[in-house]
Amino acid sequence: MGALRNIMNPFCTFLFLCMLLHVASSMPKTSAKTHYHGFIIQATPVKRLCKTHNTITVNGMYPGPTLEVNNGDTLVVKVVNRARYNVTIHWHGVRQLRTGWADGPEFVTQCPIRPGHSYTYRFTIQGQEGTLWWHAHSSWLRATVYGALIIRPRPGESYPFPKPKHETPLLLGEWWDANPIDVVRQATRTGAAPNVSNAYTINGQPGDLYNCSKKDTIVVTVKTGQTNLLRVINSALNQQLFFKIANHKLTVVGADASYVKPFTTSVLMLGPGQTTDVLITANQPPTKYYIAARAYASAQGAPFDNTTTTAILEYETAPCLAKCTSTKPVMPSLPAFNDTATATAFTKSLRSPRKVEVPKEIDENIFITVGLGLNNCPRGARRRNCQGPNGTRFTASMNNVSFVLPSNFSLLQAHQQHIPGIFTTDFPANPPRKFDYTGNVSRSLWQPARGTKVYRLKYGARVQIVLQGTSIFTAENHPIHLHGYDFYIVAEGFGNFNPKRDTAKFNLVNPPQRNTASVPVGGWTVIRFVADNPGIWLMHCHLDVHITWGLAMAFLVENGVGELQTLEPPPADLPLC
Ligand SMILES: *[C@@H]1O[C@H](CO)[C@@H](O)[C@H](O)[C@H]1NC(C)=O
Ligand SMILES: *[C@@H]1O[C@H](CO)[C@@H](O)[C@H](O)[C@H]1NC(C)=O
Ligand SMILES: *[C@@H]1O[C@H](CO)[C@@H](O)[C@H](O)[C@H]1NC(C)=O
Ligand SMILES: *[C@@H]1O[C@H](CO)[C@@H](O)[C@H](O)[C@H]1NC(C)=O
Ligand SMILES: *[C@@H]1O[C@H](CO)[C@@H](O)[C@H](O)[C@H]1NC(C)=O
Ligand SMILES: *[C@@H]1O[C@H](CO)[C@@H](O)[C@H](O)[C@H]1NC(C)=O
Ligand SMILES: *[C@@H]1O[C@H](CO)[C@@H](O)[C@H](O)[C@H]1NC(C)=O
Ligand SMILES: *[C@@H]1O[C@H](CO)[C@@H](O)[C@H](O)[C@H]1NC(C)=O
Ligand SMILES: *[C@@H]1O[C@H](CO)[C@@H](O)[C@H](O)[C@H]1NC(C)=O
Ligand SMILES: [Cu+2]
């Protein structure tokens, strides 16, 4: 898989650029390195689906540069904003121990980098190995501003599986034949659901099932008998995806930069934000096979992009190579769009490789409902601003609070500098009302309250959160992402969580560790973690359409004792509002 070929788009140009920008300096006592990168946020003409858009990119590349580091290394990334939008960059899944200022969500840990300004993110990778990624965390810029972050074991250490011959990141993305910022602005104005995308992509290319895309289809070459590592990342904005490679089994070895107990499957399901590392052995007749992804669309009746993106897995010795058209690649049969059984079977197969230290005693037992809502339009509102179902506006909430970002200070700044009036610490530990969350919910409960509420945690608190999906308006699968932490997923199920019945089923031995949990459609997920990273940490649905509507909250984790349990001071160049 050494040659990741993309016939028109010169991938190597960008590798070359990465190398230019990448200065690695060894520190004397350890083998840890510091990697310096420059990210220029800029509009660049990008042609997809027969049309050119002035796309916001990093360094003119779509997707952006792949960052490759070893566990223990430090990253220093100077972001210069030459675009016309505010921007921030989030290092998705990086723990950011004591370095919350580098986490990135706008108005949460920093104010946006305004056009013409810059900010340098500095952070160290501590105890994480596998695949993460980075993306813009401002409006919907992450539709095109994203890239892979690969973390290899420390020098001299090895993977807990046979060393793959080659490694290939596969970023699954989503493309609008429009400016994604216009799409979200239109939805915010009208109150309706935003337009769905026009294509999914693999490493930025839709693949040959779409118009004007054939010659640019990504080709991954393999050699018979070799085993390679694929780092699959769902960087789509709004859609969970099934992923499959025709005729090949995939051995899952990692998810969200934590190793998992290896298991074999023919299909993956990834929610936006999630990553899955798989080994694939080239043991099939030498020809061309499609690598394909399409929607896992769990919400009944809701519109979604039902197209299929493809790349080609090509055996080096195939008689008819990429440019030869006499043989078509073998197409895998993908699960039905609503195949919740397959999605659930996949997420339930994940385990940690061995017994892990799951918190057993719990200090903070939190129950959070997650779901959509509809706001009635205020009297006198214009009809064109109320284009949700039956003249409403879409909204979303956690525990009936629809999250509102502050605008004059970031939450972290307000916390650290004791600035009052920016947020309150009364995010409820339980839903304000109990109801049949997954049943026929009374219309009187559909309209959440708005607020900028955080939940305060003592340093070191052992936390359990039940994430309970609701069927308000519609039930659907929500990929819930927690910043600053990895958590154990100790159980998931359908219907209403029932502590009497369900606690007995918790896996406290080898549950998977992740940063994004797929809360089942009309169901629940239970996560546990220790609050050992002081700061303000956003928890939100990673479907950007839902975070836009307020499906978010934040934890305020207090400092502990001494410097090593205390948030670092803010960097001097931290952007202000
Ligand atoms: C959304 O889709 C509608 C219907 O196809 C179209 O008229 C509108 O221009 C689209 N909005 C954006 C921002 O592209
Ligand atoms: C692709 O092109 C064909 C022929 O020009 C056209 O009929 C079709 O609508 C296009 N499909 C898409 C998805 O744009
Ligand atoms: C996708 O949706 C369109 C219109 O909504 C429909 O015509 C088409 O058959 C669907 N395609 C698939 C693969 O389901
Ligand atoms: C999935 O969709 C098919 C039609 O596309 C329908 O027949 C089936 O009942 C649906 N299954 C579920 C579980 O909703
Ligand atoms: C919209 O109104 C119709 C007709 O009154 C009703 O059947 C439907 O359930 C309503 N939908 C929502 C989401 O309120
Ligand atoms: C922040 O801005 C809001 C209005 O946007 C204002 O009401 C509030 O007083 C401001 N807070 C501070 C601390 O300046
Ligand atoms: C849901 O409940 C409302 C009354 O609360 C009732 O009018 C409606 O028919 C119910 N819908 C279903 C699908 O049971
Ligand atoms: C949420 O709060 C609003 C406003 O207080 C209330 O009308 C609604 O019933 C509440 N819904 C739920 C699910 O608690
Ligand atoms: C950009 O960020 C500044 C605060 O830093 C804010 O005042 C301004 O409204 C933002 N612009 C947009 C378009 O969101
Ligand atoms: Cu969601």
UniProtKB/TrEMBL annotation:
Q: What class of enzyme is it?
A: oxidoreductase
Paste the cofactor note: Binds 4 Cu cations per monomer.
Offer an example of a GO molecular function term for this protein.
Answer: hydroquinone:oxygen oxidoreductase activity
Q: One Pfam family for this entry, by name?
A: Cu-oxidase_2
Which N-terminal stretch is annotated as signal sequence?
1-26
Assigned EC number: 1.10.3.2
Q: Which InterPro entries does this chain map to?
A: Cu-oxidase-like_N, Cu-oxidase_2nd, Cu-oxidase_C, Cu-oxidase_fam, Cu_oxidase_CS, Cu_oxidase_Cu_BS, Cupredoxin, CuRO_1_LCC
Q: Which GO terms describe its biological process?
A: lignin catabolic process
Q: Gene Ontology cellular component?
A: apoplast
Named cofactor requirement(s): Cu cation
Q: Where is the Plastocyanin-like domain?
A: 41-154, 167-317, 426-559
Q: Which key words tag this protein in UniProt?
A: Apoplast, Copper, Glycoprotein, Lignin degradation, Metal-binding, Oxidoreductase, Repeat, Secreted, Signal
Reactions catalysed, as given in the entry: 4 hydroquinone + O2 = 4 benzosemiquinone + 2 H2O
Q: What is its main location?
A: secreted
Q: Where in the cell is it found?
A: Secreted, Extracellular space, Apoplast
Task of the protein: Lignin degradation and detoxification of lignin-derived products.
Q: Which NCBIfam families match?
A: laccase
The record's comment on protein family reads:
Belongs to the multicopper oxidase family.
Would you tell me the protein name for this molecule? Answer: Laccase
